[in-house]
Specification:
alpha+beta, 3-stranded antiparallel sheet, elongated
Amino acid sequence: MTRLNAKVLGVVVTALLLQACDSDDSDPVAMVPPVTPPPPVNAIFDVTVTNLTNAQPLSPVAVIAHYSDFAVFTVGQPATVGLEELAEAGTNDALLAEADANAEVVQTASGAAPIGPGGSETITFEIVEDELPQLLLSTSTMLVN
C-alpha cells in the first residue's frame, strides 16, 4: 500500500469513528426513575388446635413462630419459669413473654380460652414471606385435669 493510500485510509477511519461517537453534550440526559422494590408479601397461616381428649380440657394454647435457635424446652434441662407456669397453672403469659424477648422468635399468639374436649380454636399468623424458609412453629398447652 502506498503512503498516500494509507493516509487517506487513516483519515476515512478516523472520520467514521468520530461520526459514530455522536457525543453531543447539548442533548438532555434521559432520567431513569429509581427502581423501588416491591412491597413485602405476607403469608397468612391458620393454626387450628383441636382437643381430641376424653373429658380433659386444654389450657389456652401458646403458639410461637421461631427460628431453630429457639426452643420452648430442652430435654434434660430445667424448665423456664414461663414453661413451669404453663405446666402448673395453665397460664401462658410468662412463656409468651420469654419468647417475645428472644431474637429468634418472629411472632407469638395466645389462645383466647381453654379448649374443651372436642373443641377447637384457630389462631391466625401473618408473617412476611422472606422469613418463611427457616421458620418453625411450636404450640404449648396444659392438660387441665
